[in-house]
Write a structure and sequence with these properties.
Shape: elongated
CATH architecture: Roll
Largest sheet: 6 strands, antiparallel
Radius of gyration: 17 Å
Distance between the termini: 22 Å
Number of helices: 5
CATH class: Alpha Beta
CATH topology: Thiol Ester Dehydrase, Chain A
Structural class: alpha+beta
Order of helices and strands: EEEHHHHHEEEEE
Number of strands: 8
């Protein structure tokens, strides 16, 4: 169950709402390998643990876009809207990959609803997201995510 569940007619009142934190999720080598297969990005810093030990990060790292894609499952732990006929991932305004995520690390999402606006047939929210790496000061990803909810 998400941290916050609201009725569709309340979404316009949510600007500035801190959604808190998701649970931590471990990044596994299997997950990285599957992402590499799905995207045809088999760079050795991701998929060759032996070679990556001697690389710039001392271990294999997750693809930046793999870490970014975790926004969706982590986001589902934080927020939901009841009474919407459709829920759409509308896009991203700003994304920065600020720190590599080593395989075996655990990440979580912190999110705040930054803006809310009406759109034809519904409501759009802009969410300020930070994907944190457990035990590290610098986050993995900072992104502004746009979602739309239609009546």
């Amino acid at each position: 169950m998400p941290n916050l569940v609201v009725d569709f007619d309340k979404v316009l009142t949510l600007a500035g709402t801190d959604l808190g934190y998701s649970e931590y999720r471990e990044i596994t080598q299997e997950q990285v390998n599957l992402f590499a297969d799905a995207t045809s990005d088999h760079q050795w810093i991701h998929v060759d643990p032996e070679r990556a030990k001697d690389g710039p990060f001392g271990a294999p790292i997750a693809h930046g876009f793999l870490t970014l894609s975790l926004l969706i499952p982590l986001w589902s732990e934080l927020f939901d809207v009841e009474g919407a006929s459709a829920k759409v991932n509308y896009g991203l305004d700003r994304v920065r990959f600020t720190s590599p995520v080593k395989v075996g690390s655990r990440v979580r999402l912190q999110a705040t609803i930054a803006e809310v606006s009406e759109v034809k047939g519904g409501v759009q929210i802009k969410v300020a997201n930070t994907i944190e790496i457990e035990g590290q000061e610098r986050p993995a990803v900072v992104a502004e995510f746009l979602a739309r909810f239609y009546s």
